[in-house]
Request: fold
Amino acid sequence: MSKTFKGGISNPLNLKAAEFKYEVEEELSDVIDVEYEEYGEKKSYPEKKLLISTLNGGSYLRNEFVVTVILYDALKHYRKGEMISADLRFRAGKDNDGNYRQHVYAENIYTLNDYRQICEAESFYNGSVSKKDEPTD
Reply:
């Protein structure tokens, strides 16, 4: 759920929904354009792969995922060791050989820096609103 503030500031995290439970291990690929056809027109979207791990447990108990990120999330640069909040989606599909493969997609990715900037923008907005509401002498 997205919360919109007057003046165009949008808070996609709704601040309480952010759970920073993944760590970026490395970017596995550069951004590529994936083409698809929609209503007879060829279109494309950016995509790249990341290796992420869970933050719980020791180094041997961590779950690791190779995730595909698309659209705006694919255009961002992720640093090794950066903590992120993400929604993981799991799908199974057949490959060209007819074998099933597990596909993991990461959506709604936010870094701690994104979170901090949203908090600052919300504080700035709330401060400016309260100053406008105060009566002037």
